[in-house]
Structures are given as structure tokens and as C-alpha cells.
Amino acid sequence: MADKSDRSADQMDKELTNQLNKELTDHQRHESSAKDKRQRKVNPRLETIFSILLLILGSFLIAVSFNVFLVPLGIASGGVSGISILVNRMTGFPPAYMQWAINVPLFFLGLWLLGKRFALKTALGSFLLPLLVLLTSHFKPLTDNAMLASIYGGIGVGAGLGLVFRGRSSTGGLDLAAQLLHRYTGLRLGLAVACFDGVVIAAAGIIIAPENALYALVGLFATTKTIDFVQTGLAISKVAFIISDRPAAITEVVLHDLDRGLTQLDGRGGYTGEARTVLMVVVGRGEVSKLKQLVRAADRNAFVIISDTAEVLGEGFSLP
């Protein structure tokens, strides 16, 4: 009799889960359809404007960081900007003009070899960044400490590049040269970029001073980490995997009390071999405590794993 009662309870649990999932799917389908219609109407123009704004702001940050931190102390952390610093140290030639002198031929070479679509993506950045470097060249240095300059200069350049990349744009320069090397030699793109940066940093150690190459490496590290930080952002989400004997009860509180969707995965106990339902739910950092409270109230014996996610795309989170 007890077995029959347990089977009946399990059956009701499964039926409730299926009904909740059906309601959620219908709701999401309706919301997604309406959302897609809105996006088709407004997204292309708004995305273009947003991309240009990010390119302008990012290029301005790069230019200011370049002039107030890197140029005064000769910290050439790779790229066209690093080459322009080396040439400036040797000849006194203004960095902005040197950047144009490199970017313009590379742009037309990219237009010829890589095609119009790729080259046009870099056109504005290739001309805008040197212009902003020229306009901010009178800004005074903020420090005479090479280590501070390499760290803060790297952070500033990384923040600017991160904004540019978030807008799906480019500042041209040796990125174009790396694309060409990748296209015609098969060398991996990341390795091609590293090769160009390595040559510039090594040249800084020879032309300026060995210490400058070390400071340039610090700046390059700061730039890389800051780009990643800007790309993923501060809003780190959490993903929770919940294994419970009462999946329907937890599904209900997550859907209605937390107002989050979730996914049911088929699992199997490693020791018992029994089929189990695994619930996966993604929440914001501020919702973790409430999620744990709701799960504990629904099933005190639930097994919960919570971990960080660098980025989440989709409805309720970031746009793709």
C-alpha cells in the first residue's frame, strides 16, 4: 500500500512538473516572438549608433592613457602605438602622424586582400584613434614612476579596447597585419598578434632600455586582463545545479517566487544507478540567497551546486 502511495505521489510530481514546463515554454515562446519583432524594427540602427559611440569613447580612453602614461616614459607595449613611441624616441616624430603612416597603408592593403567588408569595419577606428592621440598630445603626464605608468596606462588602454571590441569595432593597426599573416601563412591569429607585440617590446628593450621592455610586458598584461574584464563586465551571474527528490516543488518556487526560468536535465545516481532529475537555473549574484532559501524550504535534503559564470546571453540576461 505504501509503495502504491509513493508511486502515486511520484506520478503527481511528474505531472505537475510537465504542466509547469509547458506553461513556461508557451510563455517564453510568446515573449520571444514579441521580442524578436521589436528587435527587428529597432536593433540595426541602434546597434550601429551604439557601436560608433563605444568606438569614440574607447578610442578617447586609449589616446588619453597613451599620452599621459605611456609616451612620457617610453613604454612601448606592442602594436602600432608601441612602434610610434619607438620612432618618437629615436627621431622626435609625433606619434599620431606615425600611426597614420602605418594605419593608412595597412587599411588599403586589407581592403585589397581581405575584402571591403572587413576593411570597412576598421576604417573609422584606423583614422579616429590617431586623430584623438593628436588632439590629446598636450595632456600632461600624471606620474614619473614607470611601474605606475605601465600599470595605469595598460588599464586605460585595455578599458578603451574593451569598449571598442564590445561595439564590434577595431582600431586597425597591427590587428590588420596579423589578419593578413593569418590568412596567407596559416599562423594562428592570437600567435600572429603575439609575434608582432613581441618584436615591438624587444625593440623597446634595445632602443630605449632593457627595463622598458619589462615595463612594457607589465603594461601588456594589464591591457589584456582589462579587456577581458570589460568584455565580461561586473555582473557575474551564478549557475545552480539542484538534485532533489522533489523537482516539481522546486520548479514551482523558482518559476513563481524567484521569477526565473530553469532547465530540467536527466541524471543518474552514480552509486544507486537510479534516474534523477537535475535542475539547472541561472540567477544574478543578488538572487543566490533567495534561491537557497526557497530550495531549502521546498526540500531540505536537496543537493545544490552553485558556481560562477563569466557571461550569460539570452532573455533576462545580456543580449547576444
TrEMBL record:
Per the record, the domain of life is Bacteria
Q: State the Pfam families in the record.
A: DUF2179 (PF10035), YitT_membrane (PF02588)
InterPro entries to which the protein is assigned, alphabetical: DUF2179 (IPR019264), N-reg_PII/ATP_PRibTrfase_C (IPR015867), UPF0750_membrane (IPR051461), YitT (IPR003740)
GO CC terms in record? plasma membrane
Know the name of this protein?
Membrane protein
Q: Check the record and name the PANTHER family matching this protein.
A: UPF0750 MEMBRANE PROTEIN YITE, UPF0750 MEMBRANE PROTEIN YITT-RELATED
CDD domains annotated for this entry?
A: YitT_C
Q: Where is this region: Disordered?
A: 1-39
| Residue ranges crossing the lipid bilayer per the database entry | 48-76, 96-115, 122-139, 145-165, 186-208
Q: Where in the cell is it found?
A: Cell membrane
Keywords from the UniProt entry = Cell membrane, Membrane, Transmembrane, Transmembrane helix
* Topology relative to the membrane: Multi-pass membrane protein
DUF2179 domain spans which residues?
260-314
List all Basic and acidic residues biased stretches: 1-16, 23-36
